Amino acid sequence: MSAQQETAASPKGGADRIAVSAMRNFMVDAMIACGLPPDDADIVAQRMIESDLSGIDTHGIARLPQYVPWLRKGVINAKPAIRVADRGPATAVVDGDNGMGHLVMTRATEVAIELARESGIGWVGSRRSNHAGAGGAYAALALEHGMIGIYGAASSANHMAIWGGAEPMLGTNPIAFALPAGEEAPVVLDIATSVSSFGVIRKHMLSGQAIPEGWVIDRKDGTPITDPQRATDGVLLPIGGHKGSGLAMIIGMLAGPLNRAAFGRDVQDFSGDRGNETNTGQFIIVLDVKRFLPPAEFGREMDRHIRDLRASQRLPGVEAIRVPGGERLRRMEERGESGISIPAGLIKQLDDIATQLTITPLRAR
């Protein structure tokens, strides 16, 4: 999902700006208190803080109030034996043993990078995973190796109908791309296949803001729903009409059935009263640039095209043309220096978690 979508709906009320180091340490302590080994807790916290840094606020520390009870109840396995179930020259499948999705997909991405280094491409699917946060975090891991990353998932909740349908049979199945550049910021695109992610709608629920028309329609008659408290009475609309619906379906099939993971009616809503594994399916593709052309040459070409696009003629009223990834990098640098604003309502939830787990509250760090 796009950072632009996620930051579009800021909750009303006060907010505290918290240092990134304090947030990460709080999440590590919370994960350890829930039973995760310290190294695993550190990986989960890193993936979560990357979401907050890049502006996808709904997939970072805001998810902790969901994750903690699932871990404490054993709904998610705190100590999974993640394994590579099948591995070939350029493909693999990772079995997550119902562990935290952040751990499963970090491991899957590591395997994909290894395969790409050996064969030029690595396609790794996962099964028995869980919600893994922002997909762009995994695609971007390939950038550290000068490679291209592509991520997709069958969302662990169905909020969309197939085009023309009224029954929620599809997730807002995200797709993310990360391409290295030279002097310019890497191109990183992370989007849901719905007009709005459900995470943004959840922010509207908390803030009391109306949902814009065109995001959700009523299942019974197709009329727009603007009351966020009625969002679950409807289905989310896909981007681009039938094209977005078809894209969500294909991404879901590549992430679900191909990996023996959940899709369609088999999906259990991860935000509901869970009793069984979600068996969330995802995939990561990594391409080694140097198998196509020298990385430095690719970087120069990327820079040239990025600059051409940014300098192209603008429509009236448009101040600047932005290329996906530029704002992400700027935001990560700004938030890394100045901290991250956390709404008062979320601070209260995190204080409650600190009490439950007997750890130092966030604002006391």
Give a brief rundown of this model:
With 365 residues, this protein is α+β, with helices and mostly antiparallel strands. The chain contains eleven helices and eleven strands.
Q: What is the chain-wise order of helices and strands?
A: HEHHHEEHEHEEEHEEHEHHEH
Strands of the widest sheet, in order across it, are: 2-3-4-10-5-6-7
Biggest sheet architecture: 7 strands, mixed
What's the average pLDDT? 93
Shape estimate: globular
- First-last Cα distance: 30 Å
The fraction of residues assigned to DSSP E strands is 15-25%
Low-confidence stretches: 1-13
Note the total helix count: 11
Helix-residue proportion:
25-40%
The number of E-state strands comes to: 11
Q: Kindly provide the radius of gyration, computed on alpha-carbon positions and rounded to a whole number of angstroms.
A: 20 Å
Which structural category fits the helices and strands?
Answer: alpha+beta
Please give a structural write-up.
Helix content is 38%, strand content 16%. By secondary structure, it is α+β, with helices and mostly antiparallel strands. Strands 2-3-4-10-5-6-7 form a seven-stranded mixed β-sheet. A two-stranded antiparallel ribbon has the order 1-11. The longest helix has 19 residues, at 101-119.
